[in-house]
Amino acid sequence: MTPWLDCSPAALLLSLEVAGVVLVLFLVAGIALGYALSQPIPFRNLLDALVSLPLVFPPIAIGFFLLMLLGRHGAVGGPLHERFGWDLVFSFPGLVLAAFVAGLPLVVKPIQSAIEGSARELIEVSYTLGKGRLATLFLVVIPVIRRHIAAGLTLGIGRSFGEVGITLMLGGNILGSTETLSLAIYNQVLDGDFACATRLSILLGILSLGLFLILRRLGRL
Amino acid sequence: MPCLEADLDFRRAGFRLAARIRVPETGITALVGPSGCGKTTVLRLLAGLERPRSGHIRHGEHVWFDRGRGIDLAPRLRRVGLMFQDYALFPHLSVARNVAFGQPRGDGAEAVRFWLERLQLLPFAERRPHALSGGQRQRVALARALASRPEVLLLDEPFSAVDLGLRQSLRLLFQEVVADRSMPTVLVTHDLDDVRHLADRVGVLVEGELRQFGPTAEVFSTPCDAEVARVLGWDNRLPVSGCEDGWVRGGWGCLRLNGALASGIPELVAIRPHGPSLTEGPGLEVEIARITDMGGYRTLLCRLPDRTALQIHLPPQASPPPPGTRTRLSIPEHCILPLPARGRVPAIPSSACN
To answer: For every one of its 354 residues, what pLDDT tens digit does chain B have, with 9 covering 90 and above?
Structure first.
């Protein structure tokens, strides 16, 4: 292990694993929600508000409410634990959920506004030319707004990497188990090891920048 | 023959559209009107991109929309070829793939090639839309709409983005291509030349209301009210303040009308530019403001006593006195058209579909 990681060796790998899973989730849910929210669907405003909530609501409070909901004694987490033995909190799924909730609005909003703007007329043309919603999504929407998708993913993943508040609540900050890179920096600062915190911060910055450059390049294709 | 018949009632944010139209299978039906009158909305309602509040839309035996019966056919099932004002070409697809996009299954590359050839697009088949000129884009949009084998063709300002020089040749090409196919065709435009050159029938929309509908020549020669006359380019409109014994008067003078007035005092009298002539005898007092040689005729811009402008056309051999001269204008009765403030809702002949 390089001296960069000797203070928290598992954190980088865990953060990359979380980012990998969340990237796939963002891709599917971000496009689906962005497309759905640009259409006249029932309860559109409610769905829009729920997706946008993490932009305006304090992350620590969102994390707390999700912990209450998804914990072993929560309305959702309780039955899942009893019936299937699933634990969503203080585990890898909890970290994924935290990163997903925090970054989702940053993925959905650029996609939604691109569809409502530049893609709207093209969608209508596609409909009049005999294509349904799904065919229009794959043949028109995704190719036309691919740059916006890349931009949304960049923002979402960047936000996920830096997520602390919700992750702290849902992940539990268990050393060696649910300690992501951001939480490792937080822990090192609490321990007074500023040299290690500095190294991890630079690493996180390089990681985010690298991902930004890759996604930007993909968006240009 | 299946015609397109629609009775539309649409409301949104203070705007109301109420129109009944019947578009026969043959020929082109134009819709004209000032900006914001609802022309594009009519096309969007017909295509299924907007939903009327009430009414119905039928194409022959097929009901596309009927509020009362709960029928609202999705746009993709209406088989409408809609050409948007800015063409809305798919930017990520080549010209050939744009044209092929809406093709029915079974139509192969030959059909795409046919349309590319027909609309003189073969040399640009592999180009993306951003590498095309305005006229080329217009032809791609038309080819794409026609290659989908539509049963109804809807065109929203198809020539607005091309320059005047190109417009004439595109109109000709358009007319040839559309004449080949027998289907209801609706052309929305603000360009009266497009209407005169292309349309067999014209409907005039004003503030969401179809004020007049009929054969193009008839509608242009006898607009039903002052607003329709303005839309149709009747520039010589004189406000009327009184009317008695077959004469109408205003601050500009008085004129004798041809026959009795159908109802009350007209709001305006419109003057045809062809027909009036300068005279030494009785007539309207005018001051000549400007003379313009238009090639085949001369345009005389005159000022009436109340400073209203009046434009008349004189034959090229006429030699009017120079600008600034006060003279008189003789206006034959057949050149004067009294116009009420608001026309009655047009009765559409049921024979329009048969």
So the answer is: 589 999 999 998 889 999 999 999 888 999 999 998 999 999 999 999 999 999 999 999 999 999 989 999 999 999 999 999 889 999 999 999 999 998 988 888 889 999 999 888 999 999 999 999 888 999 999 999 999 999 999 999 988 877 777 788 888 888 887 777 788 999 999 889 899 989 999 999 999 999 999 999 999 988 988 889 989 988 899 998 888 877 888 888 888 887 656 566 788 889 988 889 898 888 899 999 999 988 888 999 999 999 999 999 998 888 888 999 999 999 988 888 888 877 544 444 433 343
Domain with residue B317: its CATH number is 2.40.50.140
**The CATH number of domain A9-220, selected from 1.10.150.20, 1.10.1520.10, 1.10.3720.10, 2.60.40.2890:** 1.10.3720.10
Q: Which of residues 11-40 of A touch B (CB under 8 A)?
A: none
List the 116-155 stretch of A: residues with Cβ below 8 A of B: 121-122, 124-132, 139-140, 143-144
Asked if B283 and B256 count as a contact pair (C-beta separation under 8 A), the reply is: no
8 Å CB contact of A143 and B92: yes
ipTM over 0.85: no
Sheet with B201-206, edge to edge strand ranges: B71-72, B62-66, B54-59, B4-12, B15-23, B209-215, B201-206, B28-32, B185-188, B152-156, B80-83
Q: Nearest to residue A152, comparing CAs of A210, A105, A117, A116?
A: A105
Is the Cβ pair A131, B48 closer than 8 Å?
no
pTM as predicted: 0.81
